[in-house]
Amino acid sequence: MNQLFQFLIRQRIILLFVLLELINAWSIFKYDDFQHVIYLNTTNRWAASLLATSREIKTYHHLGEVNAELALENTRLRQEIFKLNALKQPETKIPYFVSSAMLNRYAPVASKVIDQSTQMSQNYLTIDKGLVDGIKPGMAVISSTGVVGKVMSCTSNLSLVVSVLHIENNVSAKIKSTGELGYIKWPGIQTEVVEMMDVSKYKKVVKGDTIVTSDYNVVFPPNIPIGLVAKVGLEKDETFHQIKVMLLTNFSTLKYVYVIKNHLLDQQIKLETLKPKPE
Amino acid sequence: MGNSFQFKWIFIVIFCLFTQVFILRDVALANVAFCFIYLWMIVKAPIHTPLLYLLLLGFFLGWIVDIFYNTHGIHSLATVFIAFLRPAFFKVLTPVNGYDERSSVSLAEMKALWFFPYIFLMLLTHHLILFLVESSDASLFMYSLLRALASAILGTLVFGMLELFNQKN
């Protein structure tokens, strides 16, 4: 017995070596049984939190790129939505098909807001895309939440956008549920509230209705959300509702917007100038 | 073996593990050459370090790395193995004057002709075990060999460069 102990002590290094390697080998080949016992992998709570912190630090520097990538992806998705909307069958029974020109009518361009104001009565945004990127005055600008404005002028790399928060910038709009037409006008006071004009008092308007851009809009694609009806009022002897609309877009935190290229705009304007002038 | 000396080693252990787990984990040159800097400890431990400590250190280092690499024991297996083989490598590569009591593993004391073959042998053994066990597939055999060789060459270069910073003491 004593000799055995002597032997074990003399050979303890080799025994330890064998023992450690056996533990490792057991762990390697019996991984499935083993991992449920102690979670010695990256699902371990401590390991995971350390890795998450390290990833945060590393990715922080790439946030800009990530944002740009996401904006690009959104651009693609948005184009897809325009197509799908155009494809949607109208509720009439008339046989109707969409021409491919109509289907590919709108192409969004993601761009970054580099400057903007919301305090004035005439507010503008400056965005980082211009003539080089195919932007032209008159194009619609929307954000992921709703309408923003329209392009007023362009340099080769930048564009100036008239915000919806501009007292002279009206947007043709409709009430989504009933299809009543009107237009949106900013009274120039609160940055969250605009007014909807020209809705007859004989039509029903309910608080909470969604206001979207109309189909007869030269600038915006149809059905871009604008805001929600916040308050409906009616003065004596007036023929129109007084509708206050809460904007869906938060202008003070805008970072990325989409400029909508309308490939059929020229044709549309040309046709509309051919209309006979009323005498 | 003063207190400061031990603190130095503890610091190096933590530093190596941190670098390995948070930086080098994502690094692979041409997808074949990996750098395993945590072996620095096993490679550089003083020549007369008791083998018992080395084995336990190898086991500990290997497991920490295994946790973060999701390799459940392979790193540990390979690291304990080279820790065990270390004295054998020393025997094979005896320098002309033999090892004296205060010898340390460093380029300055041991000369390049001893230092680089030693590092290369250690790393190659480790990487061969690591990649062969990891792939555990005969069809990937040549690829694993290539990986082990490339990683060992890269590791030798990196350790050589680290050694340049150690020259003055």
Q: What can be said about this structure in brief?
A:
Chain A has 279 residues and is an alpha+beta fold. Helices cover 32% and strands 28% of the residues of chain A. Chain A folds into two domains: 2-60; 63-263, Rod shape-determining protein MreC, domain 1 (Thrombin, subunit H).
Oligomer designation = heterodimer
Chain-averaged pLDDT of chain A = 82
**What string gives the helices and strands of chain A in order?**
HHHHHHEEEEEEEEEEEEH
- The total of beta strands of chain B comes to 0
Please mark out the parts of chain B with pLDDT under 50 across 5 or more consecutive residues, or reply none. Answer: none
Helix content of chain A: 25-40%
Largest beta sheet of chain A, briefly? 6 strands, antiparallel, barrel
- Number of helices in the DSSP assignment of chain B: 7
Provide the structure class of chain A.
alpha+beta
Radius of gyration of chain A, in Å, reads 31 Å
- Fold-level CATH name of the largest domain in chain A: Thrombin, subunit H
Shape of chain B: globular
Strands of the widest sheet of chain A, in order across it, are 1-2-5-4-3-12
| Biggest interface | A-B, 23 and 23 residues
Looking at the overall shape, the CATH architecture of the largest domain in chain A is Beta Barrel
Question: Main beta sheet of chain B, described?
Answer: none
How many domain units of chain A?
A: 2
The shape of chain A is: elongated
Count the strands of chain A? 12
